[in-house]
Write a structure and sequence with these properties.
The chain has about 300 residues and is of the alpha+beta class. Helices cover about 45% and strands about 20% of the residues.
Length: about 300
């Protein structure tokens, strides 16, 4: 049996039995019919945190699927989509036996940013606030139609223009996302205005932690980065999330450590070095204090 991955890249994802792909750069997986349902129930990266090296869009057509993304738990139900951006730490935690989902995973090469800068920033703000979005039934039907067109295009192995066509389909999905998620009656209005400054600070804090937690664990570092005092940052983060800033930093570090340990690609000393701990002993005490067992004991579970 293969070991779980620390970094889930498209090459690894393409080896899943239900995956179809173009040059291991654009991958589709689904449980839309009985055949794919039986294979996807055995996805081998289930219940192990992984860092994504690609963008992923998950469509839930029916049933429920459970995902943890950057330490937040999400449950997708009918007509929900989850957009996980490159660099996110995710954990697939299972889905109902009757669930119907479709997954699109691709490199940045397949995404061509649209020209509307203001809309682009609004969409980024929307996704930072919550990567989970709800579509109308009509919007979901259109999205799945595009998914099936993509799948059919990948099957045209003698077509030298498949990649261009897939980029085009991805562009259509992107414009649809602008339309669906930035509509006047969408949740985007919640993320605008003076009353949202604390929410924006919280979003920026999580973004910076995600980018820097392997090097920096100090609240002061992130407060200086965001041009606020550590006390103010901690208060805002607690008001928004109900958790202290130090808890978020710790959880990111522990999640990365768990993924590294389960990958079995590195020694505990190497992991301690990669996470910027003074030595293996200090890392071991830190891990045991937060998890309840030593790194070696966790690795054996």
């Amino acid at each position: 049996m293969k070991q779980p991955y620390l970094n889930l890249d498209l090459i690894h994802l393409s080896t899943e039995s239900s995956a179809v792909h173009l040059e291991k750069e654009f991958i589709l997986m689904d449980s839309l019919d009985e055949m794919t349902k039986s294979t996807n129930s055995n996805w081998e990266f289930i219940n192990h945190p992984v860092k994504l090296s690609f963008t992923t869009v998950i469509f839930c057509v029916k049933g429920r699927i459970r995902i943890q993304l950057n330490l937040q738990n999400f449950e997708l139900t009918a007509n929900d989509i989850l957009i996980a951006q490159k660099g996110a730490i995710g954990e697939y935690q299972g889905m109902d036996s009757n669930a119907q989902i479709a997954v699109i995973a691709f490199t940045s090469e397949y995404f061509q940013a649209v020209s509307q800068i203001e809309e682009t920033m609004s969409l980024q703000r929307r996704l930072h606030a919550s990567p989970l979005c709800h579509l109308t039934s009509e919007a979901m039907n259109e999205s799945i139609t595009l998914y099936r067109l993509m799948k059919a295009k990948i099957a045209e192995t003698n077509n030298p223009f498949r990649k261009g066509a897939l980029i085009g389909y991805t562009q259509v999905l992107t414009y649809n996302a602008y339309n669906y998620l930035l509509a006047p009656d969408s949740d985007e209005k919640k993320f605008k205005g003076k009353g949202n400054r604390q929410q924006e600070l919280y979003n920026q804090f999580l973004k910076e932690v995600q980018n820097n937690y392997t090097k920096e664990r100090s609240i002061t570092y992130y407060a200086n980065l965001l041009c606020v005092t550590p006390k103010y940052l901690s208060r805002v983060v607690h008001q928004i999330s109900g958790r202290f800033a130090s808890d978020w930093i710790t959880d990111f570090v522990i999640l990365e450590a768990k993924a590294m340990l389960k990958s079995r690609k590195y020694t505990i000393q190497q992991i301690a070095d990669m996470l910027n701990f003074a030595n293996q002993s200090f890392f071991g005490r830190y891990f045991k204090d937060k998890v309840g067992c030593s790194p070696s004991e966790y690795q054996k579970k």
